[in-house]
Amino acid sequence: MQKCPTLARLARPPLYSNVHFCSPGPGSPNDLFMHKIGPGVLDPTHPATKTPIRAFPSIRTECFRLSAFPSALLIPHPDTIGTPGRPSIDTWANRLSRAAQLQDSGVETQGPFDLSRVVAPSILLPHPRKSIPMLLYFSISKAKTHKHAAKRRKLRTRFKEAINLVVTRGAQGTKDELGVPQLEFNDEEVRENGDRWILPDWVYICYPEASLYLMRYPQLVPLLRSSLHKIWIHGTSLEKRWAEDEMRKQAGLPPLAFQKQPTHRKSQPPRTPRQNFESKRYPSTAR
Fold first, then answer.
1. 137 near 205, Cβ under 8 Å?
2. Among 16, 46, 235, 272, which is disulfide-ready with 72 (CB 3.0 to 4.6 Å)?
């Protein structure tokens, strides 16, 4: 694994010290690993439980796949009872009650149609000062990565370091005059948009590939920047959609229906006369 010489002489981050990867988390992502919503989630009242699983953001690149779900879809840990250090999530009912209290208090918001008047922003998980919390899980397959645990642990460390570079230092991949990939850091971007990379109160699940181990940071950072940005846009649109549905519910209107995602099926060659005859003669026989 090649090292990046630019990282050896970095100054202090301009605004945020680091991305705090919360551990232990409030729940278990075992069902989300298989891309399904389990029956006993942490917050059954959250509208994400009624959202199709395909509607949540999932970005696939050449070296990893990154998905994101609200933390309300986590299932309780088997050892939750008697574990004082495990944080709790901000439920949907609590966000609605905070918004109602804010509206009753007469505090002015950004506008008459501000969605925070309906659903209050979620409370972040406990984290150190000047850090950004992130709930990140990994699903690493031995067949797709490596049989040794040390190699798989290196994949997790490398991915987390790349997230820190993007969020706290505004890292982006560029090329020098000779066309060699290198890293550049943008402190102004961190001051303006440093808190717009990680969705608060969401769970990120990474499925790394073996190629991530040998990929240099100048190639990995652009892929990660694009993935985090797309997930941020997709996740905020879902949050806005849920708030609008809650507004319609309070007004006595039905929620908006999710549009079905188009399924792309592979084109099949036309049937031969013999296949048509056999399908009529044996209708239960699969092609």
1. yes
2. 46
C-beta separation of 155 from 208 below 8 A: yes
Burial (CB count <10 Å: 0-12, 13-18, 19+), residue 90? buried
- The three state secondary structure string of 124-155 is CCCCCCCEEEEEEEECCCCCCCCCCHHHHHHH
Q: Rounded to two decimals, what is the model's pTM?
A: 0.83
Distance CA 258, CA 52 (A): 8
Name which of 188, 202, 83 is nearest 133 in CA terms.
Answer: 202
> Is 7 contained in some domain?
no
Residue 81 located in a structural domain: yes
| The pair of three-digit structure tokens given for residue 50, joined into one six-digit string | 């009624």
Q: What is the DSSP letter of 65?
A: E
Q: Write out pLDDT tens, residues 102-116.
A: 777 655 554 444 577
pLDDT, position 52: 92
User: Which helix or strand (DSSP H or E) is residue 168 part of?
Assistant: helix 149-169
pLDDT at 263 over 70: no
Q: Is residue 122 part of a domain?
A: yes
Domain count, the chain: 1
pLDDT at 10: 79
Residue 89 tokens read as: 């999530």
In the sheet that 64-70 helps form, which strands lie side by side, from edge to edge? 18-21, 131-138, 202-208, 64-70, 58-60
Classify 54 as helix, strand or coil: helix
**What sign has the CA pseudo-torsion 152, 156, 161, 167?**
positive
183 by Cβ neighbours in 10 Å (0-12 / 13-18 / 19+) ranks as buried
**Residue range(s) defining the domain that contains residue 137:** 15-281
The answer to whether residue 51 sits within a structural domain is: yes
